[in-house]
């Protein structure tokens, strides 16, 4: 991804100096673009710093965690006041804040920059979410806007706010991505296992969906993946892929952060748990042998259309949850993040780009608060027109023995958030019974404690 980002930057007319701890990789990149792009090699941090004009602008793309600290430790002695560093990896937002404070003592600005789009996006135009000192973004705005993807002629690059805001927004972006990927998996499973459809048939359905309200990058590439054949066997390659989904941590961070902020994110939570379950392949095989096959083919003529409605609703719930985390995090940490700006830069280049973002942006303008997105007239109409089909799909999946954690969690989120009364009253009563945690009453004000012993 770093190589492709360097190629993208150089292709826009910016001179680039690259460094990699493996000299062969540096040489290979420079050789591959010789006489085409202005990319020059360096072979040490001191040489890199010496070759750059001051104030320097340096992009760091390494694995999150200790590798970033190691790079900063080795690079900092060669920097000068006014230099700007851009951490474009998936660093934890708290690590970014800590590093910003450390570098500030040296007069160096660190920007935490979320870059979404994968290797292809890095080359052709990513979505860029920058966070840190505003002057750091302004000093580099031309660079990011030049290399970013465009939507309606606007660059999908923007300032997310102070501190670790850029990495915070990217973390939530990835959490939403987890939910949508799992949603696609569940949709695929219902059509394959429940309806007995082929990979080619499901690909056709996804392509059709991608031409209407479900248009998105992930639906588009899901159709491609399902249609791709293994060169050796001629069968759909997806059917030969081991059912163990990997993860790098951003989804887990998103769930942990949401819990700390008190923001309910059941769709994202369920997606992270589903990946954890997928990793337990050997245990799943053993339990399958004990309990037998639970999933079964079940004929139904209208499930695909209802599934289309369920997918849209569950995707919207995932976005609503994610946007609420960003809003709550911005308020808690003083980032000053604009949700409209977040939705603007997500319109193209990023992995979760989708047609529904336009609906969410309009809904946000109408209600002004992420918590109230489901109150917007537009989303109310859209959800109400689909909710029965959404429910029916979940019933079908249960009867067919197909696990649908994100579909279920999203639906439960919706029916919980739209209920005037929940059974939390007995939870609070039980807490007061065993721990004297007290309770409030619905018929009069005050804080109460009872013995709860008849």
Low-confidence stretches: none
Task: Work out the radius of gyration.
Answer: 25 Å
**Structural domains: how many:** 3
Count the strands? 9
- Quote the CATH topology of the largest domain: N-(1-d-carboxylethyl)-l-norvaline Dehydrogenase, domain 2
Helix content: 55-70%
Biggest sheet features = 5 strands, mixed
CATH homologous superfamily label of the largest domain: N-(1-d-carboxylethyl)-l-norvaline Dehydrogenase, domain 2
Give me the CATH architecture of the largest domain, please. Orthogonal Bundle
Structural class: alpha/beta
**Proportion of residues in extended strands:** 5-15%
User: Averaged pLDDT, please?
Assistant: 96
The top level CATH class name of the largest domain = Mainly Alpha
Q: Give me the strand/helix succession.
A: HEHEHEHEHEHEHEEEHHHHHHHHHHHHH
**How widely separated are the two ends?**
66 Å
Physical arrangement of strands within the biggest beta sheet: 3-4-5-6-9
Total helical elements:
20
Please state the overall shape, judged from the principal axes of the Cα atoms.
globular
């Amino acid at each position: 991804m770093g190589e492709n980002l360097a190629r993208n930057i150089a292709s826009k007319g910016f001179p680039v100096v690259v460094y990699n701890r493996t000299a062969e990789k540096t040489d290979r990149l420079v050789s591959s673009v010789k006489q085409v792009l202005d990319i020059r090699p360096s072979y040490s941090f001191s040489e890199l710093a010496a070759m750059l004009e001051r104030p320097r602008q340096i992009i760091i793309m390494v694995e999150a965690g200790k590798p970033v600290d190691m790079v900063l430790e080795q690079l900092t002695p060669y920097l000068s006041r006014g230099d700007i560093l851009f951490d474009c990896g998936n660093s934890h937002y708290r690590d970014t804040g800590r590093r910003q404070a450390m570098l500030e003592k040296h007069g160096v600005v660190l920007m935490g920059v979320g870059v979404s789009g994968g290797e292809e996006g890095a080359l052709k135009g990513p979505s860029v979410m920058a966070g840190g000192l505003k002057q750091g973004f302004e000093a580099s705005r031309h660079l990011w806007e030049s290399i970013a993807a465009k939507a309606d002629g606007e660059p999908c690059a923007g300032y997310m706010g102070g501190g670790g805001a850029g990495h915070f927004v990217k973390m939530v972006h990835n959490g939403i991505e987890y939910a949508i990927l799992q949603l696609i998996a569940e949709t695929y499973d219902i059509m394959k296992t429940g309806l007995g459809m082929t990979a080619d048939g499901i690909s056709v359905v996804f392509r059709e969906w991608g031409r209407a309200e479900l248009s998105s990058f992930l639906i588009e590439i899901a159709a491609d993946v399902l249609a791709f054949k293994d060169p050796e066997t001629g069968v759909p390659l997806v059917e030969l892929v081991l059912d163990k989904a990997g993860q790098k941590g951003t989804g887990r961070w998103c769930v942990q952060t949401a819990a700390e902020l008190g923001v309910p994110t059941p769709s994202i939570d369920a997606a992270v748990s589903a990946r954890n379950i997928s990793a337990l392949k050997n245990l799943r095989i053993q339990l399958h042998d004990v309990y037998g096959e639970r999933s079964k083919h079940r004929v139904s003529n209208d499930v695909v259309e209802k599934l289309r409605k369920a997918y849209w609703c569950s995707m919207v719930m995932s976005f609503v949850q994610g946007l609420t985390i960003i809003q709550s995090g911005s308020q808690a940490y003083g980032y000053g993040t604009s949700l409209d700006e977040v939705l603007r830069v997500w319109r193209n280049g990023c992995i979760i780009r989708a047609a529904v973002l336009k609906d969410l942006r309009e809904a946000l303008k109408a209600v002004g608060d992420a918590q109230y997105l489901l109150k917007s007239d537009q989303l109310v109409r859209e959800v109400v027109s689909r909710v029965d089909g959404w429910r029916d799909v979940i019933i079908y999946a249960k009867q067919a023995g197909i696990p649908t954690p994100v579909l279920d969690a999203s639906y439960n989120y919706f029916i919980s958030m739209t209920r005037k009364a929940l059974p939390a009253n007995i939870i609070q009563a039980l807490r007061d019974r065993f721990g004297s945690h007290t309770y409030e009453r619905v018929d009069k004000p005050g804080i109460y404690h009872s013995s709860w012993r008849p």
